[in-house]
Amino acid sequence: MACDSPPERMDAYVDGELSASEAASVRDHLRTCPSCASDALSRLQLRRKVADAGVRYPPTSELRNKIVSQYSTRARPRRLQWAILTVPALVVLLVILSANFFVARQRMREQRFLGEVADLHIAALASASPVDVLSTDQHTVKPWFEGRIPFTFNLPDLQGSDFTLRGGRVTYLEQSPGAQLIYQLRKHNLSVFIFQDRAGEFGKTIFEPVEFQTFHMETWSEHGLRFTIVGDVNSADIHALSELVRGAG
């Protein structure tokens, strides 16, 4: 990609609308062009602000009570029997709507999380210095994070695997510090993100690899931490690395 190429191409890359080969070409270019890397980061930040502005919230219990109260007040005595049948139905309808809002909000929150993690992965690889500690030795990388993030974690032993540790960096998600570890597999870079999971929002559920934009991702929570792996490799490779990370305990 030439530096003077149309901005629509960068928009398509940030929005995940390019093919896998086109996206890989852009990523290779971003590693060597500070101007385009800065442009990509600006567009990612703008997309995140737009997403934040579009968040919707389900109706509160006060609103539901107000609707039921108003309906009951307006019901005339001669329609009491009709109201007795209708009010419970209205309550059931509100419960169903609330449940649908909750499911939709949960799905939106998950998609937003995956999008923000994908943005962090792209931003790191577009940076001139994708890692703060450069080492293939897990016993060098893990101690480096001590005092820099408010939790500890274990790194897997990669002996006998096709993965190589490149290093790590401190990153932030919703102003919370976490670890980003960069691994390499057949010239492809994968990120392993680790953040605190204070709310226990997803419990210990392990999600199967999912496709998001041009990446495959897998995320799970355990021991109060949220792990997410993202990379432009196939789902089997993502799952293989997640098995190694989970095995490190």
Report on the structure:
It is built from seven helices and seven strands, in the order H-H-H-H-H-E-H-E-E-E-E-E-E-H. The chain has helices at residues 7-14, 20-30, 34-53, 61-74, 80-126, 138-144, 235-247; strands at 133-134, 164-173, 176-185, 188-196, 210-212, 215-222, 225-231. A seven-stranded antiparallel β-sheet has the order 1-2-3-4-7-6-5, sandwiched between helices. The chain starts with 6 loop residues before the first helix and ends with a helix.
Task: Offer a concise description of the structure.
The protein is an alpha+beta fold.
Output the keywords:
single chain; 249 residues; alpha+beta; 7-stranded antiparallel beta sheet; 48% helix; 20% strand
Integer average pLDDT: 77
Distance between the termini: 42 Å
Number of strands: 7
Helix content: 40-55%
Q: Whole-number radius of gyration?
A: 23 Å
Shape: globular
Pick out the low-confidence regions. 99-104
SS element count, helices: 7
Which strand order do you get reading across the main beta sheet?
Answer: 1-2-3-4-7-6-5
Q: Strand pairing plus helix content: what structural class?
A: alpha+beta
- SSE order, one letter for each helix or strand: HHHHHEHEEEEEEH
What fraction of residues sit in β-strands? 15-25%
Quaternary status = single chain
